[in-house]
Amino acid sequence: MTDVTAGVLIVLGGLFAVIGALGLIRMPDVLIRMHASTKIGTLACGLILAGSAFVFGSPDIIIRVIAIVLFILLTAPIGAHMMGRSVLSTGVPLWKNETSETGNLDEKLIAEHTDATIQSK
Amino acid sequence: MAGGFPKTVRGNGLTGILPVGLAALLFAWFASMLPTIAATEVIRLTIPWIPSLGIELAFLVDGLSLTFSLLISGIGTLVLLYSNTYLAGHPQYARFALFLTAFMVSMLGLVLADDLILLFVFWELTTLTSYMLIGFSHEAKKSRRNALQALFVTGAGGLAFLAGLILLAAATGTTSISGIIAQGSALKEHAMYLPILILLLAGTFTKSAQVPFHFWLPNAMAAPTPVSAFLHSATMVKAGVYVMARMHPAMSGTDVWLWTLTIFGAVTAVFASLLALRQTDLKQALAYTTLMALGTLTLFLGQESGYAMTAFATFLIVHSLYKASLFLVVGCIDLSTGTRETDQLGGLGRIMPITAVAAALAALSMAGFPPFLGFIGKELKYAGALAVASEPVLVAGAALLSNALMLAVAGVVAFRPFWRGTVPSGQSPQEAPWQMWAGPIILASLGAVFGIYPDLLQVALVAPTVISLTGEVGEVKELQLWAGFNIPLILSIATFVLGLLFYARHVQLRGMLERAFTAIPNLDTGWDRFLDRLKGFAKWQTQLVQNGKLTSYLFGTFLTIAAGILLTLVYTGMPMIAVDLSDVEWKHTSIALLTIAGALLALVTNSRIAGIAALGVVGIGIAMIFIVFSAPDVAITQLLVETLVVVLVAVVMLRLPSLPKAEFRLNHALLSVAVGASVSLILIAVVSSPLDLRLTEYFEATSWPEAYGRNIVNVILVDFRALDTFGEIAVVVIAALSAYALLRTTRKGDQK
Amino acid sequence: MNSVILRVGTRYLAGLLLVFSFYMMLRGHNEPGGGFIGGLTGATGFVLYAIACGTQDARAALRVMPQTIAIWGLGIALAAGLFAALFGDALFTGQWLFIGATEDDKGLPLSSVLVFDIGVYLVVFGSILTLVFAMEEEI
Amino acid sequence: MNGFLELSLEIGFLCVVASVVMAFIRLVKGPSLQDRVVALDFMTVAIVAFCGLAAIRYGTPAFLDVALVLALVGFLATVALARFAERNTYRNRKEAAND
Amino acid sequence: MEFLFAITIGVLVAAAVYLMLSNHLLRFIFGLVLISNAANLTIFVAGRLTDGAPPLIPEGADAPTLAANALPQALVLTAIVIGFGLFAFAIVLVFRAWTSLNSLTPDDMRLAEPEEAPK
Amino acid sequence: MNTFGLNIILAIAWVAFTGSVSLVGLITGFVIGYGALWLIQPLIGTSTYFRRVTAWIKLVIMFHYELIVSSLAVAFDILTPRHRARPAIIEVPLDVKTDTGILLVTNLISLTPGTLSLDVSEDRKTLLVHAMFADDHDAIRKSLKDGMERWVIDAVEGT
Amino acid sequence: MSWLLALPVVIPFLTAVLAFLTRQSPLGRWISVAGSSLLLVASIILMATVLRDGVIAGQMGNWPAPFGITLVADLLSAVMVLITAIVAVAVSIYAIADVDEGMERLGYHALFNMLIAGVVGAFITGDLFNLYVWFEVMLIASFGLLVLGGRPEQIDGGVKYVALNLVSTIMFLTGIGLLYGMTGTLNMADLASAVDGADQRLLTIVAVLFMIAFGVKAAVFPLFFWLPASYHTPAFSVSAVFAGLLTKVGVYALLRMFTLVFDHDTAFTHTILLWVAGLTMVVGVLGAAAQSDMRKILSFHIVSQIGYMILGLALLTPLAIVGAVFYLVHHIVVKANLFLIAGVAQRIAGGTELSRIGGLYKSAPLLAVLFVVPAFSLAGFPPLSGFWAKFLLVKAALDVQGWIIAGIALAVGLLTIYSMTKIWAQAFWEPHPDGVEPKLSSLSNRERAAMLIPIAGLAILTVVIGTIPEPFVQFAEASAAQLLDPTAYITAVLGEQP
Ligand code: NA
Ligand code: NA
């Protein structure tokens, strides 16, 4: 039974991984691609790791798996945030369908962030 | 060096006197050996030096070496005495005296050495000290040039000489000179005889300035006159002659020996005497006459007859006496009048009477007038020449011509300045102080004394020398002023007539010679061209290999790698290769492909970020390999390091410009493929046979029971091979400190 | 880097990485890990700190100059090797002390090998930070 | 290990490797710096999953340790590159302003 | 399996050599990273490859039943760290080359070996 | 959360890492955690808060629910040939005050597909969110404020 | 026994640690001097022991060979360690005057001692991978020292030095991997017999790979580019220790590996080495002839003289190995000294470019004397050490009818004379172009002592080797015997084995 659960989780995780990667290829601009990679990737990873927790079943493995997932949950969004921020501040061209409400956002961000970074030196 | 003798004739104090005393002591010491040697005995002194190479500090005093020793130490004493006044007050006199004394000692060592290698040591020491002495006026460019020339030419010969000595030692199985001579004629039959001879002669001919290696000697006159007197008349240049004489018993008697020495000697003698007459500078003229003497001595050594050997021994002494004397006289004239040009000299006889007498005595000996030793020498020369086995006429003719020219030169150098004309205006010459005329007078007088009492010389030196040369007592010929009316006497008379004629016509002759010699290629200007060519070639070659371009260096290095491996492969043939693809899973293939794809992306991309990302992909691919093939520790480390690499590159790249577009270079591509293919091929061959797992099995067996660790990799790192790990962390520390230092000096460097 | 999110995240992550790095180091003898991996991980924590809050803050937090840490690490590693001299063993011979050892259980192992690994940890940690801090400051 | 799990694992590997390959395509195509970095970041996460699969496949929890480390530090590269992009833009603009 | 990765290593080396030969220091660095990886992998592959058996001794056992060759792993680990040290220095050097020589093309760096030797 | 609490968490983390739950392990973890915190001291301001266990549990559950539901939405968009997405960058005013709170909010928003936290303004009052399905900006703002931010405030800053 | 072997490595490391911790104060330099002196004492004891007991080996960590790492000292290793210690003492004293406070604060003394540790480690290890590690220690320390000071030409030279040495390092590493893959062992004594079981064709190829990797380190033709590109750029004490020691580690490694392990097809491998030796001699000496800077001339001469040492190895007769060992020792002393002297010349005459300096003979006669000794020793004048070195090798070449190579060796000697006299004529004899009189008295008493004492010491050593060569020749003979018949070495490491 655990094997079946694990198998399902693994296959599901694998499918999500593929979907995430597909999103990475298919989606029209970088921010949208990040949606695909950050969350779906995390989800896929979590599912597969959960699968392995099921297979091993021992508490230390489960704790370890939980730790891994927590670490990813902690770090992945921070990375995504950094990337997103840099997308805005470097003025990467976005998809035509973007409907942002802030007009000169990138200028503002550059002024706000990078200035401080450089000046802090 | 214009304008009078030094104000003070007190010389250079203790620095000046000590060497004289030392030299005199040495002379006295050698003189005390005369009775022993005259009794045809030898004195030996042997101290072990390098037993493992069979090299000894072996010294031998026999007739030949004692003759040389006495000449060296005796003339050395007088020259040092002379120099003390000649260079009185010179700021570098101490160095001068040191070098001159060192030279003298080296020269003594050379003639006393009874070991080939020891001999060579002293041989090179004379080269070195003479280099220092020729370049004594080191602030003059000419001195430096001529010193280098002398060093280079004799040094080149010296190296050939060394090769010859080594071969000689190998052929005879000993480095002992006595030992070699004792082997008798075995050497002459040895297969290596000819190469040995050629190499040895290369050394002796250059050192003794035989044509065509003669050009350095006149240039060496850049040295102060006492040096010329000592080195280039009496001693150093005779080192070559000495060695030929020393090896005479072991090596002479073959056709090669005979003809080589005869031809080189004869040509040198004639050529040099012509050149001597051509000179207007007294010192230069004397320098060429030295060449003539060296040629003559070589010529004699070519022979085997007792006449030739006796003539050699006698002429050796004669020449040393008069030539040293004349050089010293020229030094006096030079200091007194400020010039050495014959045309600007005259009438010095009344003002410098003692010097004039010395000059006259020496010149008469040189010209070969009776009753001077020079006359006896000349007679023996002719006798020796006529005793030459083949072509005696040619040899005698050469001797005649050179002797006549010698007479003319003697007139020009030692007669004219004193006894003809008047002192040119503007000169106010004085008699030399006694320290400076003592030497010439003593040496010149000895020429007369020995001429009148030849037996003195005969018994004490000539006979023992000839015995050294021939090994037989019976070969010694009598030294006598009157040997009866014979062919040598007739030749002597002819010499006088011809010589006086040459003297009378020397100005016209000089003009003729001038024209003739400008037509002959001059090796001296050739020297400068040689050096330029050498430098030019060196520059060209260096530009070629060391062109300052890193890409060339890298290309060369990688080319060496590829060529080294592939050519070796051609030599060895293909190593055993077994390809087993049965256990390859699709996973493995995809990981490999991913890694390759990453590498190719890094290769082709013009975007820095794509490049870094590509490296990241390669890193990930390799980490996956480590994971799949059971190396979790390595995988973790790989991933951590990869992350840090990206971080560092990202920091540094902020200041670097974008990548330029890469141009495709076919030669680079071919080389890269060759290197890559070689590595692949070797690795495939390596993994084609099974691996001996002794070490790993030991680690597996002992890791837990003995090293208390379950992670074998970690146990290897911190226990089995902890020293590696220690070195490794040292690398990490040093890398950090080095990079830190490099970064921190930025500001300092930029501010400059 | 002037990001609130990163700064706050770093607050947790840096500590987590440090603790995690000690863990990786200590377990290294029996499980994947060890001084290198520990040191690298620990350094990563401070690298993150430096990126998020600037090197001044990171240096202040570290209190000791990183190069001093590195060189002390080297000294400690060397000392761990030299320790064997006291027992007449060769350089880098592991010296073990099992606290509370019984028949079945080896107890709590203390060893020169562990000290060595700590040295390795400190070297890697200190060296990387030396490098990264200096680069951050100079570039 | 039964057949179902083995099959699932094989599918899992296939999917993960395929996703890595697709991410690589994005990495090659770019076009922006961020695209490439996102692709690389995705690969990192995929390797974490890969470690999980390897741990099951070979019955060795040791590979989970690899995942553990990677989960913690993997994002550092992303952060560094993102920061590079920002600072680089700023520098370029500043230089352009100075010109 | 080894064959496959031997080929992979060859490609890595070839790419690395080409990059190192390009007259640009950043590309040289890229090449350096690649070739270091290739060298590490060479040791690993030369020590033979074993799937799924990390050289860890299970609790309760005295020795592993089947384990991958641990020695090359230790060597590679050492080599990776050393390689990192060298890389770190190299990248800083490249940076310094840019700031003090204002060039990343080494063939244009002619201070140590000037084009024309001064007379 | 005060320093002590953080330390406890680190100690627990330690136990988690070592995988052996014991007093010795906990103490060791506490000591090592203490060391780590000591090192990063300047980062930790003085702060005291209750832990709201129930709020935490709710947060965890809701987060996972959101994660799965919106993942499916994004996956659907990826897999279907036409892009339904109407992406936009939206400014969301922030009520959450504490560092931990901000981090949680932003991270959780990022982790739920469809929304991605791009940045927090320097004054910590505004959050920039990239939303994939942003036909109605205000609706998104509202759902975020009433959903994720609310739950986080309850868990972290609740009285 | 094992501590005797370990101490020469441990001492410089401890010194480096202490020197680094005290880098902000002048104490660092004294620690460095003390550490080097201690190293000297340790290496003397080591040498005495090896002379008394023959080859000694120590198993680090008490793990038996070939499983752990073995440190081994035969006569060659012992003498290399000893000479390294001597150079270390000389240079650490010299550095007191030569290295400025800025460099000290950046850790000069620590880097220097780490370099020495790496060199000593390389000489004393009996494990191939461990050799790689020491190579790296040495290499990375040399990187740091080379660019310390950060002048642009240092950076330029550093780029080339680093780039090419990294290539060599990676080749070495690859070679180790391959050799391990063939034999399953890393212990060099163990390798000596383990290679017999390997595919001999493959072994030859791997041997060539090692030859190239070590060839870069040893700076032989056509792999020496990095050396003349960089050695004239760093601080003088740095270039002295580089010139003396670094390339010699490469030569040592060649000597060790190609007598102990790769002796299966000497007809091929050692013929290549012979070609390499000849070309290296010639190309190096011509390179020197093309230079006009003292340090550049000396740098190219390093290359040229490496050729002589390789010649000894290539001929592989007892006498040739004697010559190589003798040359190795002589060269380290002499070459390090010449670079130190160049440093003094730079200080008092204002440079090393020969056309811009002069007058040293007239106004600094002591320096002139001190220069003459190593310079003419290098040129091979008797009775200085270089003569015997050259003599032995030429004799060895002639003994095997190697006419051409002997001729090359001699001709290169002549060109060496040319270079040395060029320096002598232009820096010493020729008046200074600016009319200044460079005097040693322009240095402070402390500087004068710090710079001249090591120079004088090394010069005296040169003279001693030259005039009393017997013990040195005997030593070299014993060492060559050990190299050519490695039984003692192997037994010392592995114990009595079938
Ligand atoms: Na063998
Ligand atoms: Na000059």
Automatic annotation (TrEMBL), chain A:
InterPro entries: PhaG_MnhG_YufB (IPR005133)
Sorted UniProt keywords: Membrane, Transmembrane, Transmembrane helix
Molecular function in Gene Ontology: sodium:proton antiporter activity
Pfam families (alphabetical): PhaG_MnhG_YufB
Statement: the UniProt record of this protein carries the keyword Transmembrane: yes
Listed transmembrane segments: 6-25, 37-55, 61-80
Full protein name: Sodium:proton antiporter
Species of provenance: Marivita geojedonensis
TrEMBL record, chain C:
Protein's membrane topology: Multi-pass membrane protein
Residues annotated as transmembrane: 12-29, 35-52, 64-88, 108-134
Residue ranges of domain Na+/H+ antiporter MnhB subunit-related protein in the record: 5-129
InterPro entries attached to this UniProt entry: CPA3_antiporter_subunitB (IPR050622), MnhB (IPR007182)
Keyword hit for Transmembrane helix: yes
Gene Ontology CC: plasma membrane
UniProtKB keywords: Cell membrane, Membrane, Transmembrane, Transmembrane helix
Subcellular location: Cell membrane
Primary location class: membrane
Assigned protein family: Belongs to the CPA3 antiporters (TC 2.A.63) subunit B family.
Protein name per the record: Monovalent cation/H+ antiporter subunit B
Native source species: Marivita geojedonensis
TrEMBL record, chain E:
Cellular component terms (Gene Ontology): plasma membrane
Keyword list, A-Z: Cell membrane, Membrane, Transmembrane, Transmembrane helix
Transmembrane segments: 6-21, 28-50, 70-95
InterPro entries (alphabetical): CPA3_antiporter_subunitC (IPR050601), NUOK/Mnh_C1-like (IPR039428)
Entry-linked Pfam families: Oxidored_q2
Membrane topology: Multi-pass membrane protein
Subcellular location: Cell membrane
Major localisation: membrane
Matching PANTHER family: ANTIPORTER SUBUNIT MNHC2-RELATED (PTHR34583)
Family in the record: Belongs to the CPA3 antiporters (TC 2.A.63) subunit C family.
Protein name according to UniProt: Monovalent cation/H+ antiporter subunit C
Taxonomic lineage of the native organism: Bacteria, Pseudomonadati, Pseudomonadota, Alphaproteobacteria, Rhodobacterales
Automatic annotation (TrEMBL), chain G:
Domain NADH:quinone oxidoreductase/Mrp antiporter transmembrane span(s) in chain numbering: 126-412
Cleavable signal peptide: none
Principal location listed in the UniProt entry: membrane
A molecular function (GO) term: NADH dehydrogenase (ubiquinone) activity
Cellular component GO terms held in the UniProt record: plasma membrane
Bilayer topology term: Multi-pass membrane protein
Alphabetized UniProt keyword annotations: Cell membrane, Membrane, Transmembrane, Transmembrane helix, Ubiquinone
InterPro entries attached to this UniProt entry: CPA3_Na-H_Antiporter_D, NADH_UbQ_OxRdtase, ND/Mrp_TM
Single GO BP term: ATP synthesis coupled electron transport
Annotated TM spans: 6-23, 30-51, 71-94, 106-125, 131-149, 161-182, 202-227, 234-255, 267-290, 302-321, 327-345, 366-388, 400-418, 449-468
Pfam families named among the record's database cross-references: Proton_antipo_M
Places the protein is found: Cell membrane; Membrane
Summary of the function given for this chain in its UniProt record: NDH-1 shuttles electrons from NADH, via FMN and iron-sulfur (Fe-S) centers, to quinones in the respiratory chain. The immediate electron acceptor for the enzyme in this species is believed to be ubiquinone. Couples the redox reaction to proton translocation (for every two electrons transferred, four hydrogen ions are translocated across the cytoplasmic membrane), and thus conserves the redox energy in a proton gradient.
Family listed: Belongs to the CPA3 antiporters (TC 2.A.63) subunit D family.
Protein name: NADH/ubiquinone/plastoquinone
